[in-house]
Write a structure and sequence with these properties.
single chain, alpha/beta, Growth Hormone, Chain: A, 5 domains, eight-stranded mixed sheet, four-stranded antiparallel sheet
């Protein structure tokens, strides 16, 4: 019986984790993925578990057929869970009108989210909370040891959860989609129910429970529950801190989160199973509780201290491989998690011993206190400890909490413990005190945080800001030249998210400059995700816009941008036309009642956890619904980060929504998707060129290589007809198949992207495009066709700057002699318009340095002043060690100077 029930509970655990994965994914689509929305869904789920535990504590021992009730609960979980998987995507259509009225009232909106998530999760979560106490009650009839039963049930159920976590994200969702994964989870619940009913045929006659404990025993039970509450709080707080720490070095994909969660669950399961083996050998389990509390604190300090060595052993680089992530997670989290599983089981044994032998009541109270503690710990760590104290001091607070747990549980045995037990407590107390005294304060800032940004501190970059915020740890680096800032880079959880350097700024501002050129009179705009503010600045520089909504999920990103001011000029967020919304972008689109002439987005890389929701077909449908007639949408398509199948899935979903979809090259392999809601034209030439006549915008256009209006059109790659071959037969990326965006980063860039960027083929697609005929000013069509010849060199310069290829001297000579380009020449030579302005200011201030002569020599080359360039570059070579690059530049200048005379 015991072995069979452990197998049943393993299957139940796998189903539970599958459903949790699906519910939280689907809830994000309906209620948003903001920190408040995610926390409220988590709180609602845990509240349901706690209610189930409380019901079990009150009623489980009175049931005559607990196994039959358990089977019914499994059926209830499977049925209601499957209903939720199917219903969640339909909730937005029902909820959006009502939630729209609350969209500007944060308190009311979050209250509505809490009520909705609690209502929909109550039934399955409560049923889940009832299951462990019921099975513990079933096994009581065999006269087997309670501690052994509890440890085995707890351990096997948690091992099932490990299987569910890894199978869901690593296999099932990719293979069969979200809904069929829900069917699979419901099938596991059904299998567990059928097995339980088969076992119930043997008859159930649990012995009657003893009356609840009173007096001293009740006070001891309260102390144990308090310790279990604190233990749950400590582990969940640690989970939040651990995940934040590991994400500095690990790819933040959904599968990475599943791997890290699986490591914690393996530890908990191991602790439960170890307790099952030790149960019969523990004459006084209560004496072990303080030891375990102290051991958890020691393990937390030791693993944190040793983590730099583990990262060095893994190569010291950013981790993408799941096996490496698992090793790092195990080194940090496994020991404390194992102790936590031991503590839970031993605490249950003490509760049982002090509760008159009522198995259901003991386990119900145990899970109730542990679940409530877990909820409190997760919320405290995310909303209080990390934002106010940072990761390291939060870790120390949790270590101190383990010490408090030990203090609360001392003396629970009721009599003086035997000398060996007393010696063990004193020895562990000494180790705990030593760990606290030697806690490695400063390790987070001096090693972990610096380690995560070190790859971005090369070539004149320096760290200017580090902030451990509510939802992420973010850093800013600044690139300086001759003492002035050139550009900034935003790093979130160790991953470069955005920057104001010219190659990034080019495509981010193209999100605005392209649709504004083609829209007769854009008045309102929506920007989803702020980044460093490059796209927002392009919007605020657009004089015709009357209202600009900026939506970002992180207030810390906006605050950090205010502190660093990474884009030159006025702060975009201070523009009176800008309205700021701290919200999940998809949820904002779902609930807002506003509509826009332009909707654009600067989202994080699509493979980051949760960002797939901003690239699905359903998301693009929301974008289209919020456009005014004739409105335009532009969106980032980073094909350098995508396998060809992923690009095809995204483009297919976009083109399924926007019949007039098109793709444009922004900066190398950072492309731009564009679609419209029935835009008509052609736009008048004067409207198209207004940005080049605007003194606030023209300098930016020149800095980004759009020196003439026709060069904007030369970024065209293909319209819907040209993309038809690319997406033919490809299924779209949709909410039911999020894993069409794979978890593995491509090692090489697909050759198909290069073929699409071949400018002669792109020119022909432009010439025959119905979209271009309908929108492009007729007077500019021929100049634009001719500009594709220059676009070849622009692409070459941008790809070389990104390290995708190199430019030789013959190519450099040709771009200088065969084109009128200026800014792209600077890119080809390793400079930029902003760097040139800084160099000129340094020269005007009387500075002299070989690097300054080299920079000004490059500027003279780009301006075709070859004699001046030769003079500067020769002086730079004489005054500093001659590098091969500097020698090559000097020879190029000498050759061009000679041929120009």
């Amino acid at each position: 019986m015991r072995a069979a029930l452990c197998g049943v509970f393993f299957v139940s655990g796998a189903a539970a984790l599958l459903f949790e994965t699906l519910w939280f994914r689907q809830a994000g689509l309906a209620l948003g993925n903001s920190v408040w929305a995610s926390s409220l869904v988590t709180a609602s789920f845990m509240a349901g578990l706690a209610i189930g535990s409380a019901l079990a504590a009150r009623h489980a021992d009175r049931l005559r057929r607990p196994l039959v009730v358990y089977a019914l609960l499994e059926i209830l979980v499977g049925a209601s869970g499957m209903v939720l998987v199917v219903v969640f995507p339909w909730l937005p259509a029902v909820l959006a009108p009502g939630l729209g009225y609350l969209s500007d009232l944060e308190l009311g909106l979050n209250a509505a989210r809490a009520a909705i998530s609690f209502a929909v999760l109550l039934l399955p979560a409560t049923a889940m909370g009832l299951t462990l106490p019921l099975l513990a009650r079933v096994l009581a009839r065999g006269g087997l040891g309670f501690g052994s039963n509890l440890g085995l049930l707890y351990g096997f159920n948690t091992l099932g959860a490990v299987a569910g976590a890894l199978a869901g994200e690593g296999l099932l969702i990719e293979a069969i989609g979200v809904r069929w994964t829900g069917v699979a989870a419901a099938g596991l619940n059904g299998a567990a129910a059928l097995a339980a009913l088969a076992l119930a045929r043997g008859g159930e006659a649990p012995r009657p429970a003893e009356p609840p404990a009173v007096g001293p025993a009740a006070r001891i039970a309260l102390r144990v529950m308090g310790a279990t509450f604190a233990s749950g709080a400590a582990l969940l707080a640690l989970e939040v801190v651990w995940f934040r720490l590991l994400l500095q070095f690990c790819a933040a994909t959904s599968f990475s989160f599943a791997v890290m969660l699986a490591v914690i669950l393996v530890g908990i399961a191991g602790g439960g199973l170890l307790a099952a083996q030790l149960a019969s050998r523990l004459p006084t389990p209560a004496a072990l509780l303080p030891v375990l509390g102290l051991l958890a604190g020691v393990a937390t300090v030791v693993t944190y201290t040793r983590m730099p060595g583990v990262l060095d052993a893994l190569g010291g680089a950013y981790l993408f491989d799941p096996s490496s992530i698992a090793v790092a997670a195990a080194a940090l989290m496994l020991p404390t998690s194992t102790v936590s599983g031991l503590f839970f089981t031993v605490a249950g044994m003490v509760l049982h011993a002090r509760g008159g032998g009522a198995e259901g009541r003991a386990v119900g109270l145990l899970t109730l206190s542990n679940t409530c503690g877990a909820l409190a710990g997760a919320l405290a760590a995310g909303f209080v400890l990390l934002p106010m104290l940072g990761g390291e001091r939060s870790l120390f607070i949790v270590v101190a909490l383990y010490g408090l747990i030990a203090a609360v549980t001392v003396g629970l045995g009721g009599s003086r413990p035997p000398l060996p037990a007393l010696g063990l407590v004193l020895g562990m107390l000494a180790l705990f005190g030593l760990s606290v005294a030697l806690f490695p304060f400063g390790l987070m800032r001096n090693d972990f945080l610096r380690r995560s940004v070190t790859p971005f501190l090369q070539g004149g970059n320096r760290l200017v800001l580090v902030r451990e915020g509510l939802t992420e740890t973010l850093s800013y680096t600044r690139h300086e030249l001759f003492g002035e800032p050139v550009d900034h880079r935003l790093i979130v959880n160790g991953f470069s998210m955005s920057g104001s350097f010219f190659s990034a700024a080019r495509y981010m501002r193209l999100f605005v400059y392209l649709p504004v050129a083609l829209h007769p009179r854009p008045r309102s705009a929506l920007l989803i995700s702020y980044g460093v503010g490059v796209t927002a600045q392009a919007l605020t520089d657009t004089a015709g816009l009357e209202s600009i909504d900026v939506v970002d999920i992180s207030a810390d990103v906006l605050d950090a941008a205010r502190s660093v001011h990474p884009v030159p000029g006025p702060m975009p967020l201070d523009d009176p036309r800008v309205r700021i919304h701290i919200e999940d972008g998809r949820f904002f689109l779902l609930t807002t009642r506003r509509s826009y002439d332009l909707i654009t987005g600067e989202p994080p890389p699509p493979r980051q956890n949760g960002i797939v929701n901003l690239y699905s077909k359903e998301y693009f449908g929301l974008v289209r619904r919020r456009l005014r007639p004739g409105g335009m949408a532009s969106y980032w398509l980073p094909v350098n980060q995508l396998a060809l199948a992923e690009t095809r899935a995204i483009v297919r979903g976009f083109c399924d929504v926007f019949e007039d979809c098109s793709v444009w090259t922004g900066s190398g392999y950072d492309w731009v998707l564009m679609g419209t809601l029935g835009a008509r034209g052609p736009v008048p030439r004067e409207a198209f060129e207004r940005q080049w006549n605007d003194p606030a915008v023209r300098p930016d256009l020149e800095e980004l290589g759009f020196e003439r209006p026709e060069l904007l059109g030369a970024t065209f790659l293909a319209d819907s007809n040209g993309l038809a071959e690319l997406v033919d037969g490809a299924p779209p990326l949709d909410d039911d198949h999020p894993r069409r965006l794979d978890m593995h980063f491509p090692q090489v860039i697909d050759a198909t992207y290069g073929r699409l960027m071949e400018t002669e083929a792109a020119r022909k697609r432009f010439e025959h495009s119905a979209l271009i005929r309908g929108l492009w000013p007729s007077e500019l069509r021929q100049p634009t066709l001719e500009a594709f010849g220059e676009q070849h060199w622009v692409n070459l310069a941008l790809l070389a700057n990104a390290g995708h290829r190199s430019i030789g001297a013959p190519e450099m000579r040709e771009i200088l002699t065969a084109t009128r380009l200026h800014t792209p020449v600077l890119w080809s030579l390793g400079s930029s318009l902003r760097s040139q302005m800084i160099a000129r200011r340094a020269m005007a201030a009387g500075r002299h340095a070989p690097a300054l002569d080299e920079a000004l020599g490059i500027g003279a080359l780009a301006e075709r002043r070859y004699t001046d360039a030769l003079e500067r570059l020769t002086r730079a070579r004489h005054d500093s060690p001659a590098t091969p690059r500097l020698k090559a530049l000097e020879e190029l200048a000498r050759s061009l100077a000679a041929s120009s005379h």
